[in-house]
Amino acid sequence: MQTDIDPRSLIGRKAYDRNGHKIGTVDEVYLDDATGVPEWAAVRTGLFSRDAFVPLEPSELAGDGLHVPYERALIKEAPDFGVGRHLSPEQELQLYRHYSISLPPAPHEVRDFGRLAGQDEA
């Protein structure tokens, strides 16, 4: 998805599945803790329904709607974490698995921390 879009501009937009069927309306947008890039959207799936989390990558903003490249049934079966709270790393992991998305690369480990210059690695 375009990263130059103001996440607040997504709120209130209609969301559609891969076949163009309406899923619901974007209720909230969740940013990546490390980068601040919009990562997930909570989509209200009906008047008395719950919010379903959808990945913003590889979703596309086209016209006045958010187009999510997954079937509506899969989206509606996404884990329910409620809205208005921070997503934990465990919850994000569940969402990545649900959508069969490759996990983002882990931060590079600093293996030489505390090692004196000139020492050989063991």
Automatic annotation (TrEMBL):
Residues 8-66 form the PRC-barrel domain. InterPro entries: Bac_photo_RC_H_C (IPR014747), PRC-brl_dom (IPR027275), PRC_barrel-like_sf (IPR011033). SUPFAM superfamilies: PRC-barrel domain. Pfam families: PRC. Gene3D superfamilies: Photosynthetic Reaction Center, subunit H, domain 2 (3.90.50.10). This is PRC-barrel domain-containing protein.
